[in-house]
Write a structure and sequence with these properties.
The structure is a homodimer. Chain A has about 240 residues and is of the alpha/beta class. Chain A folds into two domains: about 120 residues, Rossmann fold (3-Layer(aba) Sandwich); about 110 residues, 3-Layer(aba) Sandwich (Rossmann fold), CATH 3.40.50.1860. Chain A is about 50% helix and about 10% strand. Chain A has eleven helices and seven strands. The first copy, chain A, has a four-stranded parallel sheet with strand order 5-4-6-7, sandwiched between helices. The first copy, chain A, has a three-stranded parallel sheet with strand order 2-1-3, sandwiched between helices. The longest helix of chain A is centred in the C-terminal third of the chain and has 18 residues. Chain A starts with 5 loop residues before the first strand and ends with a helix. At the A-B interface, helix 1, strand 2 and helix 3 of A face helix 1, strand 2 and helix 3 of B.
């Protein structure tokens, strides 16, 4: 086969990986199997916990992530995406080990945000690792968009337990906790929410939260990037 | 990583592949990411149409399927599953090229059917290629279970257009056509339906068909096999 082959470094978590794969499928104009985006997915969740690693309470996830990057390159992936915002904390190390370019989730998200002109203030729902790495805030600031984040109290009481609930497939509980964290950002003036942890859209969609309509989903942004890469590449 | 790694030869079609991955995820008792089944998926749908190949109106799908089998073995898959009943027409050629054992979808289905003792008659909803290959009927007959199949007229008017509708993501239309084909087998005395084309459970679930409750889903049977392989392998 020639043309693009999308490689997905998944497993962080496995539900978020399938959410990306569904969004790629649903976003592809296709009349038959052969029109769909070719994707090879390394959905191997035996990767040490990213938040615990950064908190110094667990081993580094990097060696396991590099195993996946190598497997995807060997399988012939021409572009790689990672449906885990937190994992982008290690973007530079992963890209250095990958012949295939990795599409950064914050670049894909910024491209989608810019389709709503005049945005001044967005709320970022993200793990502490993602917030502290700052890769969303720096990109948004460069385009005049201010970025609100959750308070420490909201993070501990709502966001973190909500994410772990989704990871253990307790989608009702997880969705409600994450919705409460999202509402707090809206209450402080966020015009849109960036659901910058892949568990968040899974949880909000499960409880059919009305806040989903005011949200930008970086997983969907990545999916649209994959579809665009496929459609541009198969033409040439 | 040691222990099992499930390889999925997907793409036939891509929606059915994601259906299998969802069923593996939902069938796994898991409290955290790391408890989930590790899966590498080759979901590359640029495989020539299987039904057209057997009808003599298109090229063979075997070379493209062998590319996937090789990629999965190189990635370290210890067991391979194929979420496409029709593709099992070429099972022997694929297994001959694979160091990793391929779990046959009809073996997985028979194991699930045998959990309902006393079954005498099942209806098989399958492509012509699958029905004519006979790998379901021979296994069922060996256990005293008679197998009803759709008539030629039902196949042409309901089953085949229903499958292709699901493949192009027209899930409402596809679900209704496939439900009508299923009802015809129930009317002729089938006690259970075997949804032996991976588009069928996708369509019936989408329209919330009551016939789903009287059905055995080979995709679910494969998913349960994957979970069992993972749970037995990680223990040792």
């Amino acid at each position: 086969m020639s043309g693009p082959l999308i490689g997905v470094l998944g497993g962080m978590g496995p539900a978020a990986t399938l959410d990306l794969l569904q969004k790629i499928l649903q976003s592809t104009p296709a009349a038959r199997d052969q029109d769909h985006v070719p994707v090879v997915t390394w959905n191997v969740p035996q990767i040490p916990d990213r938040q615990k690693a950064m908190a110094g309470t667990g081993p580094s996830p990097v060696p396991a992530m590099l195993d996946g990057i190598r497997a995807l390159n060997t399988a012939g992936a021409t572009h790689i995406v990672i449906p885990c915002n937190t994992a982008h904390r290690w973007f530079d190390e992963l890209q250095a080990a990958s012949a295939a370019p990795i599409v950064h989730i914050a670049d894909a998200t910024l491209a989608l945000l810019q389709q709503a002109p005049g945005l001044r203030k967005v709320g970022l729902l993200a793990t502490r690792v993602t917030s502290e790495a700052g890769f969303f805030q720096s990109r948004f600031a460069a385009h005049g968009i201010e970025c609100l984040v959750t308070s420490d109290a909201e993070q501990d009481a709502l966001f973190t337990p909500g994410c772990y609930a989704v990871k253990r497939n307790a989608l009702d509980d997880g969705g409600k906790l994450l919705e409460a964290a999202a509402q707090a950002l809206i209450d402080r003036g966020a015009e849109r929410l960036v659901l910058a942890c892949t568990e968040v859209p899974v949880g909000l969609q499960h409880i059919a939260s009305p806040l989903a309509a005011r949200s930008i989903d970086p997983t969907m942004a990545l999916a649209l990037s994959c579809v665009r890469i496929w459609q541009e590449g198969r033409r040439t």
